[in-house]
What does this fold into?
Amino acid sequence: DRPGDWGPIFDEVYAATKASRGIKTLPTTHDDNRDFIRTNRFLIREAKALAQHSDTPAIAAVIMWDGVSRGDDDMTAGFAKLAQEAGLPLHTINTLA
It folds into this structure.
């Protein structure tokens, strides 16, 4: 949903990650908002679980956005909220700067 030619970049990152067996796929509910929320929750749980089994267990959440929520269906704001509720430090990259 962003302007630009992100397809080739996504495909390259996906292929490299899949080759290293770093891809996990969640089943879809065919409800985009619900799937984004489930994925955000999964990412936070997975990061916390990986950190527990690491010699350097520090983790943080990073969001890249303009800092303005579109409302209840803004998935970036939703991810930030979930990360903060999980006690993760939150780092924001402002796309307007």
Remarks:
- The longest strand covers residues 61-65.
- Helices lie at 7-19, 32-52, 75-85.
- Strands lie at 61-65, 90-94.
